[in-house]
Design a protein that fits this description.
single chain, 144 residues, mainly alpha, 7% strand, elongated
Length: 144
């Protein structure tokens, strides 16, 4: 199904249900990566660290999470979850988002969730199904 609301009329925007399914898939991958990152920290001798209590360890885990997302967004436009659900991230001009856009998208997505999910619910009101982090980063998800 095509919509006239997208930048490119041939690309269907990704809706909220599919976004949530992508988050479940990527959540499993991120959980595994964070467990691996924690194991590496323990092997390196950091045995008294707790996420949320130790700011450096928390930043380390957030960096691992960000690098997973940004690497795949920059490289092929899709994370593992996005590939499973046939969704692609792109800038408004159709290119891949830059590192700065990825970082802005990552940070604003926390605000989207922290406001009781209003940033995600915004996609139900937006003609192009964009969330707050889509709008802030000038990127969006489309069906491929």
């Amino acid at each position: 199904m095509r919509t006239q609301a997208t930048t490119d009329p041939g690309k269907e925007p990704c809706g909220l249900p599919r976004r949530l399914l992508i988050m479940v898939y990527d959540g499993l991958v991120v959980t595994a990566l964070l467990l691996l990152a924690t194991a590496l920290a323990l092997v390196a001798g950091f045995d008294q660290v707790t996420a949320g209590k130790d700011p450096w360890f928390t930043l380390y885990l957030l960096a691992v999470w960000f690098l997973y997302l940004a690497w795949f967004w920059r490289r092929g436009g899709m994370t593992v979850g996005m590939r499973s659900w046939h969704v692609l991230i792109e800038r408004e001009d159709g290119g891949r988002p830059g590192w700065g856009q990825c970082l802005l998208r990552f940070l604003v997505s926390f605000a989207s969730v922290a406001c009781l999910g209003l940033g995600f619910a915004w996609s139900l009101l937006d003609v192009r199904k964009r969330t707050w982090h889509d709008l802030a980063s000038k990127s969006h998800l489309v069906m491929r």
